[in-house]
């Protein structure tokens, strides 16, 4: 029904086949040329290197260091080094390769990834889940998205700052330049976003190819000098590490998780490049380079404990230090891009689902619909990242705040994936539980270890997540109340009303009136109220009902049906996918092509009584509290339907 559709799906979305409604959201100057044919996957794989793998690819800058340098560090002896390397390797193998690349990335919704894609899949499955289960899944989806948004603030800050800190290794004189350079680089990075992730990927792709080759070769040289570190490939060293270190080992696990912090962004960025190009890049270049570099840092630390303060730069030949610092800085810009693009994707889906206010969304690629740019989100992330740099000042301090958000999102993704396995893929509950339990144990271990960082800066991430969560709950509640007031809730039977019109033959005024209804089998109360108040009707009256499909889009030939009711009244029934927005002028043009008289300057009538939030709930309380801030102009949704506000009239009354 149209009210439910707009409450849950229509607001702020975009129909790509609808030029009249989408033109304000698409900047054609941003479109990139895309090669056709067999080179497409390689082209996208290169772009994926520049965008998707930046975050996880630059983790060697700080992940291994955080295990041996900081408040919860352990001594850099062979047992601990081997244990940390074993945990890193198996984290990459089990969490990234097995969980995300093999399983989770199969759970895409028409190519889109991210936690909202899982919710889309469950909605598509249709009515098989109990209502309370659906409500819980929606709540945890919003919580996971809020954690991911918060993580998007800190990733650019820690990535760029950790790279620029390499200047202090090269020369202590450059220490005063670290913060100004970091802020300048962040400003330039966010300025580039309007060019689109495809264009940025082409620019950053060669940088990341060079980055992975360099870090892999630096690590290989150290491993060749001390090949015994390869023994850490055995999981027994990870187990032995916990046996020896106990609770301190759990704290170090909170640092180990930094090596996989980009995996949730990897999934969220699927819509920008597709699953196959991402898998090609991961297995061919990214994973081998990461393993070699981490093991190289371990070998270098065992050979020279003086590099403990920064083992990544410690294994770089001295003559190449400055070029590698420059390359690392460029690579961390790419790392930030991974999270920024992922946030854009999730925000776009949240807006389409009605969990965020309407935002100006720019489509930046003709070939890949998931490549979008959102100016307001870009500005907010830039300000937040710069503020975090100024607040924490060193990457080791930011590391304390890093990881809580992404591990929380990872655990929630795993939980929702359990329902996708059963209700969308047809797995038995037992088989789904076996695979999900293994992943969930890892996720909760990582999350629990990171909670120990709460007072080291983790509270900031949780506070930011709570604010995002409150905004999304408020938006959903407010817009449900808003659209529940705009669209007629009561449908009157058609036959008595039409018989009444035939009996009294009311006067007709020129023009076309459009009354929005929730159903296509009756007369909306708005029409009844208008007629009772004025005792006239327009020459042409259209009762327009919009319903949603479980598919993301509906073919144009299946979009509209027109049924004459007599007395100049027609029933229009339109269907839209849940990722589309009704374009009312186009619907009327299509109706005119099906035999209706020409429609000029129609007037749209709506029932706007008041905002009714229903009974008390946290979401309704937040909606009433935050509505004045989030929705200064509640009528801005009309232009997205292609309707000028001047053509909309309210029908008031009891």
Question: What order do the helices and strands come in, and which of them pair?
Answer:
Layout: H1 2-10, H2 19-22, H3 39-51, H4 54-57, H5 63-68, H6 78-103, H7 115-125, H8 131-164, H9 166-170, H10 178-192, H11 197-225, H12 236-245, H13 247-256, H14 263-268, H15 270-273, H16 275-303, H17 311-314, H18 321-352, E1 362-363, E2 372-373, H19 375-392, H20 395-401, H21 404-423, H22 429-451, H23 458-486, E3 491-492, H24 494-504, E4 508-517, E5 523-524, H25 525-534, E6 537-548, E7 560-566, E8 569-576, H26 584-592, E9 603-607, H27 618-630, H28 637-640, E10 648-651
Parallel strand pairs: 4-6, 4-9, 6-8, 9-10
Antiparallel strand pairs: 1-2, 3-5, 7-8
Helix pairs in contact: 1-23, 3-11, 3-16, 6-12, 6-16, 7-21, 8-10, 8-18, 8-19, 8-20, 8-21, 8-23, 10-19, 11-16, 11-18, 12-13, 13-22, 21-22, 23-27
What's the gist of this structure?
The chain has 654 residues and is of the alpha/beta class.
Terminal residue distance? 22 Å
Count of discrete alpha- or pi-helical segments spanning 4 or more residues: 28
- CATH architecture identity of the largest domain: Up-down Bundle
**Could you give me the name of the CATH homologous superfamily of the largest domain?**
Amino acid/polyamine transporter I
Give the count of structural domains. Answer: 2
- Main beta sheet, described? 6 strands, mixed
Counting DSSP E segments of at least 2 residues, the number of strands comes to 10
Q: Which sequence of strands runs across the widest sheet? A: 7-8-6-4-9-10
CATH class of the largest domain: Mainly Alpha
Radius of gyration, whole Å: 28 Å
CATH topology of the largest domain: Amino acid/polyamine transporter I
- Name the overall outline: elongated
Low-confidence stretches: 1-20, 22-38, 609-616, 633-637
Bin the strand percentage. 5-15%
Mean pLDDT: 77
Helix content: 55-70%
Catalytic activity: K(+)(in) + H(+)(in) = K(+)(out) + H(+)(out)
Pfam family, one: K_trans
Family: Belongs to the HAK/KUP transporter (TC 2.A.72) family.
Organism: Solidesulfovibrio magneticus (strain ATCC 700980 / DSM 13731 / RS-1) (Desulfovibrio magneticus)
């Amino acid at each position: 029904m149209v009210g439910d559709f707009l409450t849950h799906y229509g607001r702020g979305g975009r129909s790509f086949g609808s030029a009249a409604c989408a033109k304000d959201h698409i900047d054609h100057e941003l479109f990139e040329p895309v090669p056709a044919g067999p080179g497409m996957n390689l082209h996208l794989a290169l772009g994926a290197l520049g965008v998707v793998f930046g975050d996880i690819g630059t983790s060697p800058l700080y992940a291994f260091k955080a295990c041996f340098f900081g408040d919860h560090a352990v001594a850099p002896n062979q047992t601990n080094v081997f244990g940390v390397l074993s945990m890193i390797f198996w984290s990459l193998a089990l969490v990234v390769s097995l969980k995300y690349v093999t399983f989770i990335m199969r759970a895409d919704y028409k190519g889109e990834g991210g936690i909202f894609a899982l919710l889309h899949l469950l909605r598509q499955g249709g009515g098989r889940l109990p209502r309370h289960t659906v409500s819980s899944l929606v709540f945890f989806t919003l919580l996971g998205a809020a954690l991911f948004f918060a993580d998007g603030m800190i990733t650019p800050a820690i990535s760029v700052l950790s790279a620029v800190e390499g200047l202090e290794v090269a020369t202590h004189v450059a220490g005063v330049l670290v913060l100004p350079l970091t802020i300048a680089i962040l400003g330039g990075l966010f300025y580039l976003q309007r060019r689109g992730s495809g264009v940025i990927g082409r620019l950053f792709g060669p940088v990341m190819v060079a980055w992975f080759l360099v870090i892999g070769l630096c690590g290989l040289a150290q491993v060749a000098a001390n090949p015994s570190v390869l023994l850490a490939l055995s999981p027994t060293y990870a187990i032995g590490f916990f046996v020896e270190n106990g609770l301190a080992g759990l704290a170090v696990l909170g640092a180990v998780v930094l090596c996989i912090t980009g995996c949730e962004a990897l999934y969220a960025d699927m819509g920008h490049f597709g699953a196959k190009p991402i898998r090609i890049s991961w297995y061919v270049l990214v994973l081998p380079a990461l393993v070699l570099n981490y093991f190289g840092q371990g070998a270098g630390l065992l050979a020279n404990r003086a590099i403990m303060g920064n083992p990544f730069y410690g294994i770089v030949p001295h003559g190449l230090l400055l070029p590698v610092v420059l390359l690392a800085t460029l690579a961390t810009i790419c790392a930030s891009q991974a999270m920024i693009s992922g946030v854009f994707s999730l925000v776009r889906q949240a807006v389409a689902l009605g969990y965020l206010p309407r935002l100006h969304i720019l489509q930046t690629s003709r070939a890949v619909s998931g490549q979008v740019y959102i100016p307001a989100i870009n500005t907010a992330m830039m300000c937040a990242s710069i503020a975090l740099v100024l607040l924490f000042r060193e990457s080791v301090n930011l590391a304390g705040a890093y990881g809580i958000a992404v591990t929380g999102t990872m655990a929630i993704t795993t939980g929702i994936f359990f329902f996708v396995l059963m209700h969308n893929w047809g797995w038995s509950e037992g088989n789904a539980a076996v695979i999900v339990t293994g992943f969930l144990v890892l996720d909760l271990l990582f999350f629990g270890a990171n909670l120990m960082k709460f007072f080291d800066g983790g509270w900031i991430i949780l506070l930011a997540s709570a604010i995002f969560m409150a905004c999304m709950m408020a938006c959903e509640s407010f817009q449900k109340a808003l659209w529940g007031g705009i669209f007629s809730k009561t449908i009157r039977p058609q036959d008595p009303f039409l018989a009444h019109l035939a009996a009294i033959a009311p006067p007709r005024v020129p023009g076309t009136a459009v009354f929005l209804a929730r159903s296509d089998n009756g007369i909306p109360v708005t029409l009844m109220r208008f007629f009772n108040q004025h005792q006239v009707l327009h020459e042409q009256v259209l009762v327009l009902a919009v319903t949603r499909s479980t598919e993301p889009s509906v073919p144009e030939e299946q979009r509209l049906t027109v049924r004459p009711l007599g007395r100049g009244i027609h029933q229009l029934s339109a269907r839209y996918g849940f990722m589309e927005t009704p374009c009312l002028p186009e619907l009327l043009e299509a109706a005119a092509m099906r035999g209706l008289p020409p429609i000029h300057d129609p007037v749209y009538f709506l029932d706007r009584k008041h905002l009714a939030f229903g009974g008390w709930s946290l979401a309704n309380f937040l909606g009433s509290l935050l509505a004045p801030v989030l929705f200064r102009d509640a009528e801005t949704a009309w232009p997205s339907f292609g309707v000028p506000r001047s053509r909309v009239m309210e029908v008031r009354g009891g």
